[in-house]
Each structure stands twice: as structure tokens, then as C-alpha cells.
Amino acid sequence: MEFHIRCDPKDIARYAFVPGSHDRAKKIAAHFDNPRLVSDSRGYLVYTGTVEGIPMTVSSTGMGGPTTAICIEELGHMGADTFIRVGSSGTLQEYVDCGDVIISTGTYRDGGTANAYLPLEFPAVPNFEVTTALVQAAHKLGLKVHTGLGSAGDAFYAPRDPSKRELLKQSGIVSGEMESDTLYIVAALRGWRAGALYANDGTSKETKPVWGEEAFRQGEENSILIAIEAMKTIALADGAKKA
Amino acid sequence: MEFHILCDPKDIARYVFVPGDHDRAKKIAAHLDNARFISNSRGYHVYSGTVAGIPMTVCSTGMGGPQVAIGIEELGHMGANTFIRVGSCGTLQDDIRVGDVIIPNGVYRAGATAIRYLPVAFPAAPHFSMLTALVGAARRLEIPVHVGVGWAGDAFYAEGDPNLMVKLKKAGVKAMEMESDTLFIVSNFRGWRSGAIFACDGNAGEIKPEWGEAAFRQAEENEILIAIEAMKQIALADREASRAAATTQEKA
After folding, report:
1. What is the CATH number of domain B9-244?
2. CA distance A186 to A113
3. Do A128 and B171 lie within an 8 Å CB cutoff?
4. Chain B contacts of A108, Cβ < 8 Å?
5. What DSSP state is assigned to residue B204?
6. Which residue among A106, A119, A172 places its CB closest to the CB of B106?
7. Closest among A111, A96, A93 to A20, alpha carbons compared
8. What share of chain B is helix, strand, coil (3-state, %, to 5)?
9. With contact defined as beta carbons under 8 Å apart, do A152 and A107 qualify?
10. Inter-chain contact A120–B120, Cβ cutoff 8 Å?
11. What is the model's pTM?
């Protein structure tokens, strides 16, 4: 038995969604056929079910690098090797609105956890196959998305350096969140596939404005639909056996 | 006039191929229509011509970050904003052979030049539209490619850290070369688009073996074909987008 995610390894699928939020884990599970609660310990709310007969798991990671690294390591020990983070993010760019969906193509490594795995010089980038599947899924569903680089860091409330913010904005950083740097680097070292997309919950000026809540929730639902469609495509390309 | 690439800015196209090797610049130029020699100073061999009627430029960068940065900065001053590096590389992976073609989706930043632009935490990644255009072009031409993370550093002959190399091999690093970190970071900083493709000239255990020369040269030709097809598709998509924008403006 793993130290933190407490379940039978047989209950973990190869294909895992890893949202930060526990509530979003529940929402993703609601899209599975026959979802069942597999584990609920240390903040890892884990459900497993099927999508068109293909076994899939969802586990909340909680917020930040340390809890994300433990989550995917333990899921990996139990047989998962393909991860899609279905997250929320803020944005640095004026052209991005509340409720927009952003597919990540790489992440600025502002977090510390991944440094224990690979030096800072190693690029935090998603697996190309996963990213392509996400972009194509959005296209197929007729949902508009942005693609671009993001930044992921550890300290939501720490003082922000305005000149660094300006530098990253000018250099094309679209999103800001707290987990994808760790996800990509741990997955790279372990030889797993990982990708990420975010429902944007702010604007370049405002963090999580109350007026944007409804649009964000629609974006969240859209990001879940895209992620599930993409994972299905990846699984079928792998020749996944239906349950 | 720029300090190092000495030519009339009118002779530089928006779309530029940036191989390291001067000879490869000539080979790429041979695929352009009406290619003409533009400039040869400080190691920057520059040719311009057209592909499907679209103006394109080739400029050799020479080896390493400092020359790459100066090269693309000056090309950018003269109107270029879309770059494909058509390079050569070695490999860390046992399943990659001399003569394989590799398209990087990110690069380990072992070079120092790009640190003058953006902190090392910034991911050295190609623009996603360039990456997908390159992979799409390879599929269309039915040339097999590897897509994965690469490594780019400054010192070809320096002793590497063997423990780090073992780790990077495990982490899936496919290509080893000396320029794409700088290309990707300077491009992001300037708001330009860039991508890269490499012909592999070694194996995991061998650097540029002589017996692999013929296979490498075939791969070099293949990567040139892929790069030109990808650049053409990018340029056509740009043309379509600007037409659509013009139509919208007319209606408004």
C-alpha cells in the first residue's frame, strides 16, 4: 500500500486526470461511467470509472508542488503513466478573459519541488502527444482555446515583483498557476506522459473576481470535456483494452 | 546598416531558416526559387529567394549561443520574425540512430547566452505553431521523426558531468546541440516565433562516426525538405489570417 493514496493498486487506471481542486475531481468523476470512490486520504480524493469502456482515474492533487509530486509518484507506482492536469489559472495577458481555456505548451519553473528531480535548466514542457490531443479535442468539440507558455510557482500570496511580471508578460507567458512545473518535470524523469489545461479565473488586472465566477465555471466544464475527449483519443491510439 | 550582417534590410524576408553550418545554408538556398546571395560577413552567409512565391531567407548562424543571438537579433531588426533552425545534433538515446530526424518540443538550457535575456527557469520551447507545422510537414512528406526534449550547451569539447548525463538520458533527452536554447529564448523575449529540427549525426555512444556520414547527409536533406514545407504552411496560414483580418476591417 502507498503511504498517502490508500487503495488497492488494481483500482488505479493507466490514464489519470489530476486537478488541484477536490471539487473538480468530483466533477470529472461525474463524467465517468460507473465512477467509484477509491480513496480519500491526505487530500487525495480518488475516483475510478470508465469512459467508453476505458478505465480512467481522477485524483485531486491539492495545491502546489510537494503534494502534486507525491500524488503522481504514488499513482505511477500503481500503474498510471498518462496524466492530464485539469486546473485553474490566472493570466498575464489582456486578450485572455475569465472563462477562457488555456492549453499549456510549457511552464516557467517558479516552484521549488521539481528542483529535487531535475536541474532548473531542464524545460518544463508537456508531452507533445498529450498537448496535440488536447488541442485536437478542443477543435473537435468546437471550443475556443488559447495555447501558450505559463508560469507555475509555490506562493500564491507572496509579494509579487512587478518588473518580473512585466518581463514574463512581454515574453509571452499566458497563464499563472502552481502545479504544472512539478507535473512536467516529475513525469519527464519517470518517463511518463503529461499535459495540462486550465480554466482561467481572472484577468490581467484581477485575481478571481466575483463577477467572473459564472464564466469560470463554464470554462471549467469546457476544460473537463476537452480533457476527457483528449484522454480517450490517447487511450485509443495506445490500443487500450476496453474494460 | 546592422553591425554584423551587412545588407539592405529589404533583402531580408520575414521567414528565415537559421542553420548553424554555412554549407547547409547553401544547401537550403538551393531549394529556394531565384535564390540570390545577399551577404557574407562575420560568418553569416545569407541568401534570399522564394518558396511558392513567398520571400524567404537563409542565414548561417555559426556555432553557439553568442553568434545565434546576434544573428537573429539583426535579422529581426531587418524584419524577420519567424525562424526555423535546421541543425545537426548528437543523441543520448539508444533507440535513436545516425540519420534520424528529431524535432524538439523543449530544450535543456545548458548555454549561458540566453540567461542574459530570461532567467533559466523560463522554458526554452519552440512556438507551438512552429512545432506543429514541423511535425505536420514531416507527416505529409512521410519522413519519420522523433519529437522530444533536447539539450543545448556552449562547450562541445568540455568534459560533461557523467551523472547528469545518466539522469538526462533517463529523463528522455533525445538531441544534443548548441543553438536552440538561445534561439527559443531570444524569440520568446522578442515576441517572435521559432522552431527547430535536427539531423542526428551520432549514436548514444559515438560522436559523428565516419561510417554514419551517408545516413546523416540523407537526414540533412530530409530535415531541409521538412523545414521548407513547414515554413510554407506557416506563411500561407499568416496570409490567410491577414486576409481574414482585412475582410473584417472592410466590413467594419
Report:
1. 3.40.50.1580
2. 9
3. no
4. 121-123
5. T
6. A106
7. A111
8. 40, 25, 30
9. yes
10. yes
11. 0.94
How far is B129 from B146, CA to CA, in rounded Å? 17
CB within 8 Å: A123 and B147 = no
C-alpha distance across the termini of chain B, in Å: 40
Using an 8 Å CB-CB cutoff, list chain B residues near A175. none
d(CA B193, CA B239): 16
CB under 8 A, 24+ apart: contacts of A218-222:
A218/A99, A219/A98, A219/A99, A219/A100, A219/A101, A220/A24, A220/A27, A220/A88, A221/A27, A222/A101, A222/A141, A222/A143
The amino acid at residue A19 is: P
| Domain locations along chain B | 9-244
CB contact under 8 A, A128 and B105: yes
Give backbone dihedrals phi and psi of B179, rounded to 5 degrees, phi first.
-130, -25
Residue A205, amino acid: K
Instruction: Domains for chain A: give ranges and CATH numbers.
Output: 9-238 (3.40.50.1580)
Minimum distance, in Å, between the CA of residue A228 and any CA atom of chain B: 22
The identity of residue A123, as a single letter, is P
Report angle CA B149, A240, A32 to the nearest 5 degrees: 100
Who's near A223: CB < 8 A, 6+ residues apart? A86, A87, A101, A197, A198, A199
CA torsion through residues A47, A52, A55, A56, sign: negative
- Nearest CA to A136 out of A103, A100, A169, A106 is that of A103
3-state secondary structure of A109: strand
Residue B7 half-sphere exposure, CB side, CA atoms within 13 Å?
26
Q: pLDDT 10s per residue in chain B (252 long)?
A: 999 999 999 999 999 999 999 999 999 999 999 999 999 999 999 999 999 999 999 999 999 999 999 999 999 999 999 999 999 999 999 999 999 999 999 999 999 999 999 999 999 999 999 999 999 999 999 999 999 999 999 999 988 899 999 999 999 999 999 999 999 999 999 999 999 999 999 999 888 999 999 999 999 999 999 999 999 999 999 999 999 998 887 776
Q: Alpha helices, DSSP H only, in chain A? A: 22-29, 65-77, 128-140, 162-170, 180-190, 213-238
Closest-CA distance of chain B to residue A76, Å: 15
Owner of C-alpha cell 485524483 = A59
Nearest to B147 among A109, A128, A172 (CB): A128
Centre a 10 Å sphere on the Cβ of residue A18 and count the other Cβ atoms it contains. 27
CB nearest A125 (choices: B106, B164, B168): B106
